[in-house]
Design a protein that fits this description.
Elements (H helix, E strand, L loop, with lengths): L10 H16 L11 E7 L4 H4 L6 H9 L1 E3 L2 E2 L5 H10 L21 H7 L4 E5 L11 E2 L8 E2 L25 E3 L20 E5 L11 H19 L4 E7 L9 E2 L2 E3 L6 E3 L3 E2 H11 L30 H13 L1
Helix pairs in contact: 4-7
Length: about 325
């Protein structure tokens, strides 16, 4: 800041100017929440909290737990899978009670992706084994007899609309992406995580999300595919979130939810939260409107280190005027 804090300026004025510039760039809606440059949310499948946290079958997830915020009373909203994905993405199950392709799509209701785009930010949903950008089929597999890509684990497709310009709350097909070839570091994609959207969701296929495959297999996939982003995030103001859609119907729908990033205070947090709290947190990080039940949910702000810019700042003109008054006295 050579022109603002040159010799002759007061220290307090220079400090205020510096903090004001930081505030302008980084302040978030919730006041004491930071604004990550990028957030990646990974959704795993069908295992209860006690099957994951502390399990020898999930060493990578437990390493993330040790390094990040672990929510010990995190719960899914309902059963089966699909309405939980919808709840996390839109603050509502949209009346869906099963895993069939929903009727009445594209929905016109508020959702995280559309709110990000309307705010001038970006969103991307990355689904493993999805065959093409904008694919809206019910399933796709590359191995006979295996379940791989399933639409029920892809909530954003239910708002997809190819109309140009895209109507309010609808999403262009360009945000509905295959994982391989589009997520940074995968074959054919950029290696630069800075090219990620503001918020990304990553959904492994049914062999790698612990639905059909084992806990150990899903944990290994997460380590192999997200550890590079996690390492990068720690020095690039970015956040990794790992959560589950639901439990296996054995533990009152209690699931693991873990956040790791430079803005996170490591530890166990016991407050009761669910998918709506997580959605509210993502919205508040970027000063977005609140979709559905997120409007009345409490953000998970207890786990975040407050941004310095969240402090109440005195404007530079006010500091200068105060200094002059004191000098005259």
């Amino acid at each position: 800041m050579p022109q603002l804090c040159r010799p002759g300026r007061t220290v307090v004025l220079c400090a205020s100017l510096a903090l004001s510039l930081v505030a302008a760039r980084r302040a978030s809606a919730a006041g004491n929440l930071p604004m990550p440059d990028h957030v990646v949310v990974v959704i795993e499948e069908n295992h209860a909290y006690g099957e994951i946290v502390g399990s020898a079958q999930a060493p990578y997830i437990n390493a993330l737990r040790a390094a990040g915020a672990n929510f010990t009373q995190s719960y899914a909203v309902t059963h089966p899978s699909q309405p939980n994905y919808l709840a996390l993405f839109s603050g509502s199950t949209q009346g869906v009670t099963n895993d069939s392709v929903p009727a009445g799509t594209p929905y016109a209701t508020a959702n995280l992706g559309a709110n990000l785009l309307a705010a001038g930010r970006t969103f991307g949903g990355y689904s493993e084994t999805q065959p093409s950008v904008g694919y809206n089929g019910a399933t796709f597999t590359t191995v006979a007899g295996q379940n791989q890509y399933v639409r029920k684990h892809n909530p954003w497709v239910n708002w997809q609309d190819a109309t140009t310009p895209t109507p309010a709350n609808h999403l262009p097909p360009a945000v509905n992406l295959p994982y391989v070839g589009y997520f940074p570091g995968t074959a054919g994609a950029s290696a630069d995580f800075a090219s990620l959207p503001t918020v990304s969701f990553v959904v492994p296929n049914e062999q790698n999300d612990m639905h059909d495959g084992s806990i150990a297999q899903g944990d290994a996939w997460l380590s192999n595919n997200l550890s590079a982003f996690r390492t990068w995030a720690m020095t690039h103001n970015s956040l990794l979130v790992v959560t589950f859609d639901e439990d296996d119907s054995s533990a009152a729908n209690q699931i693991a939810t873990i956040m790791v990033g430079p803005m996170i205070k490591p530890g166990d947090y016991a407050g009761t939260v669910n998918h709506y709290n997580l959605l509210r947190t993502l919205e508040d990080l970027y000063n977005l409107p609140h979709a559905g039940a997120a409007a009345t949910a409490t953000p998970m702000s207890v786990a975040f280190v407050p941004e310095p810019a969240a402090m109440t700042l005195i404007s530079a003109p006010l500091v200068l005027a105060t200094f002059r008054r004191r000098k005259k006295a």
